[in-house]
Structures are given as structure tokens and as C-alpha cells.
Amino acid sequence: MILRRQAACRLSLARTVFTSSIRAQSSFAKAPSNRSSPPKSWVPTPYVTETVGGGWHTYDIFSRLLKERIICLNGGIDETVSASIVAQLLFLEADNPSKPISLYINTPGGSVTAGLAIYDTMTYIRSPITTICVGQAASMGSLLLCGGSPGRRFSLPNSSIMVHQPSGGYSGQASDIAIHAKEILRVRGQLNGLYQRHLTKPHSLEEIERLMERDYFMGAQEAKELGIVDEIIEKREEKRKEE
After folding, report:
1. Which of 15, 30, 175, 197 sits at a 20 to 30 Å CA gap from 235?
2. H helices within 31-166, ranges in order?
3. Cβ(59)–Cβ(47) below 8 Å
4. Cα 76 from Cα 110, distance rounded (Å)
5. Is 164 a catalytic residue?
6. Active-site position among 84, 111, 160, 164
7. Which residues pair with 47 in a beta bridge?
């Protein structure tokens, strides 16, 4: 009788453990569906094949554009994108430091430090930088747009430009929060100074601070009036034939 009771207890315990493990596995299986990031679709990259000297050379479209000294900044700005843009800028300068580089910008912004790495490289190299806004140049993208060489900052007619002050957050000890608050205020002042330096129309720091207080969206014409871009281009001009 005692052996039967012990066997029944063991069977009940085994069922409980098995049921708990099934529930745990079910909860782990459902965990990825609760991610906050939206699903991303895969976009195929076009390839170009050329015949050179009797041989075949195949490039992805962005590498082929790089041969024409064209760089495309698409999507959010992070450390990976920044490293790629910086490397392309340095490569094109080493190839021909006097020939212009065209940077096509379509970005919602992103990391301030990653964006400043691109900006500093743009001003560091000797090659003139032509910036063209296609789609949007928001947040850090607007600084890169107006950070091009004077007279070489353009926007397509239906582009959108947005400026604002930097945002961030931190949690932890009160002293650490105060340190990070001081740092973000320093970065805000630094960015305002860069805008003041590159805007084609004169603005005081107080005016720029009021402008950056909230998200400020502009069309191409308003961005030109503010001084972020030099010209609005609707069609590529044909090169004049040398007589």
C-alpha cells in the first residue's frame, strides 16, 4: 500500500514538472512576437555588369555609383552607416582630392556622434562635397545637408527637411543623470554653432535655439529661404559642349 502511494506521488510530480516545462517552452516561443521593432522586408540590390577590356566586371549598384564619386546615405544614421560613409569619403579623396564628391541624403536622422563623424570627415578631406536632399533630411541629416561645400548644397523640389534639438534619455544615480544632462546641453550648443556656421543667411544663436526648440519641418523652398540649401534643382543641367 505504501509503495502504491509513493508511485502515485512520483507520477503526480512528473506530470507537474512536464506541464511546467511545456508552459515555459510556450512562453519562450511567443517571446519574439512581442518585439517593438517593426518587421523589415528584404530589398534586393541591383547589380551592373560591364565589359572592360574583353572581360566582365559585375558591381552592385552602390559600388558602381562610387566609381562616379556618388555616395548614397539612406536610412537611419548609426555607427555602421557612419563607418561606411566615412570610408567612402576617405577613399574618394585618396583617389582624386580635387574632384567633387556627391552625397545624396535621404535619412530620418539618428545618432549624433555617428552623424558628427560623417560631418567631421566631410570638412576634413580636401575634396569639395556636393550634398543633395532626396526624400528627406531630418535631424542629423539636415546638418549633413547644410554641411556641404558653399554653393553646392541642393534639394529636390519635393524633399522635406526637419531640424530640432538633440534628444536623449538616461537612468541611474542622480549624479550620473546630472552628468548626462550637462553633456546633452553641451552637444545642443555645439550643434547650434555648426548650424550658425553653415546657414547661408545670418542668424544669431538665440534665433537658432528658438528654431530648434521643437520639430520644425520645412519644404525645399523654406529650407532655401532659411539658408540650409543653396538651390532647388528640378532637372540635371546638361553640360555645355566645349567649342
Report:
1. 197
2. 61-67, 79-95, 112-124, 140-146
3. yes
4. 5
5. yes
6. 164
7. 60
**Residue 161, CB half-sphere, CA atoms under 13 Å: how many?**
27
Q: Are 140 and 187 within 8 A, CB to CB?
A: no
pLDDT tens for 58-74 read 888 999 999 999 999 99
Whether 139 sits among the annotated catalytic residues: the reply is yes
pLDDT digits (tens, 9 = 90+) for 188-221: 999 999 999 999 888 899 999 999 999 999 999 9
Is the pTM higher than 0.85? The answer reads no
Specify whether the CB–CB gap between 81 and 113 falls below 8 A.
no
Helix (H) or strand (E) holding 219: strand 216-219
Q: For cell 529636390, name the residue.
A: 156
Of these residues, 139, 142, 155, 159, which one is catalytic? 139
Asked if 70 contacts 59 with a C-beta cutoff of 8 angstroms, the reply is no
